[in-house]
Amino acid sequence: MDEFIGVVSVVAVIVAVLGGLVGFAVLARRRGVSGPVLGVFDELYHPRAHSSHIEIQVHDNEGTPAPAPGGP
Fold it and tell me: Residue ranges per domain, the chain?
């Protein structure tokens, strides 16, 4: 009986940890925090993805140019 309780408690801990990670992932994705948090791993393991992400951020921050005077 003690072995059964031990196995059940280990499984419960694993399920709780995985559930917490899933909850954190959902929260991070909803708030838009995942980009800066995971950017470190992109930079280490996939540098091209990280550099393209930086280019996208720069492009988003530039905004649209002002229209020319007398233009349509």
Answer: 25-58
pTM score, whole prediction = 0.47
User: Residue 32 gets which letter from DSSP?
Assistant: T
Whole-angstrom Cα distance, residue 62 to residue 64? 7
pLDDT in tens, 33-63: 666 666 677 677 777 776 777 777 787 777 7
Whether residue 50 contacts residue 42, with contact meaning beta carbons closer than 8 Å, is answered with: yes
Cβ–Cβ < 8 Å for 49, 39? no
Helix (H, G, I), strand (E, B) or coil at 72: coil
Which tokens in the block code for residue 24?
A: 């954190």
